[in-house]
Amino acid sequence: MNNGKKLRWGIIGCAGIAIRSVIPGIMQSQTGEVAAIASRDEEKVKSTAGSLGIPVAYSSYEALLEDESIDAVYIPLPNHLHKEWTIRAAEAGKHVLCEKPFALNAAEAEEMVAACGKAGVHLAEAFMYRHHPRYDRVKEIIESGEIGTIRGIHGTFTFNASGAKGNVRFHRHMGGGALYDIGCYPFSAARYILGKEPVAATVQAFFSPEHGDVDMMASGLVEFPDSIGLTFDCAMWASGRNTLEILGTEGRIYLPSAFVAAPDQASAFSVFVGGEQREETFQPVNQYALQADDFAQAVWGGQPRFAPEDAVHNMKILDACLQSADQRIRVQLGE
To answer: Residue 203 and residue 321: Cα distance in Å, rounded?
Structure first.
């Protein structure tokens, strides 16, 4: 499929997530190499390229897209720029890995999917956690019937960044707020685990005047078919945690670090059945590297693990949750 070649990546922007996690992940992957990085801040991009050993630094995004040696781009720009640069990358013939949340709304997401489809390039949303083998094992256990019929899921993702004044997450017009930034994780996880799309959402949020009136905390219920509910909370002004619990009629599965997995540490989750508990353990893996490898295999003709339309479905939940939080109403999804 690839004849031993590497997928040559270009990075559009010097965001912290790119520098800390995604670029090292691509560098540690079996399939990829980081060939170039671009930023509108020339001094910053040169410094970043030098510190990470990236051979080419561009002082404009356009220049990177014009580089014919680049196969794929990773876009970690502020949320309101995802649509524009995904479409421009597609038009330049580049495959696109776009950071979550995918867009500002489902309509933008649909435009991005259509543009990449028209250009014949692969498009994926950067939910790295789904590429960790833990989640395949969680699904295996559920499908085996060991914990019985699923009755509910509870997901959390919280941290305290309230003191980071000027953070792009504190600007509404840029797609700021906790629902966009981390609420999207439990939505994605519940959809993956259940293999179904939700029917309604109800959300209570704390909008902070100190932080551009974005939602700094949100709690809610996302209703799925078969009377299954995802209860969740997400926050950028609360004590930190990221957990997932799947409750069945005969047992439950609990992931204490559901979305974050240190690449140099083993990880585990607990299974509770019949009054007994066991640990399912996993050797250290870099889930960002696994994400890059899965992406490359799709580029080289393999079946994508997650179709681009998956991102559209997740944005529909975000749309409903944001509307519910703003208007204090239950919002129906789907037909």
So the answer is: 6
> Does the active-site annotation cover 100?
yes
For 258-270, the DSSP string reads SS---TTS-EEEE
Give the DSSP H/E element, type plus range, for residue 190: helix 184-194
- Dist. CA 205–CA 264, nearest whole Å: 35
Instruction: List the 7-12 sheet strands across, edge first.
Output: 56-58, 32-38, 7-12, 72-75, 95-98, 123-125
According to DSSP, residue 300 is labeled T
At 65, which CATH number?
3.40.50.720
Q: How far apart are the first and last CA of the chain?
A: 40
Arithmetic mean of pLDDT, 200-215: 97
Q: Which residue among 6, 46, 83, 100 is the active-site one? A: 100
What pLDDT sits at residue 17?
A: 97
Domain that holds residue 41: 7-128
Tell me: do 275 and 196 sit in the same domain.
yes
Looking at residue 58, its pLDDT comes to 98
- Please state whether the predicted TM-score (pTM) of the whole model is above 0.85: yes
Compute the residue count for the chain. 335
Residue 325, token pair as written in the block: 């939080």
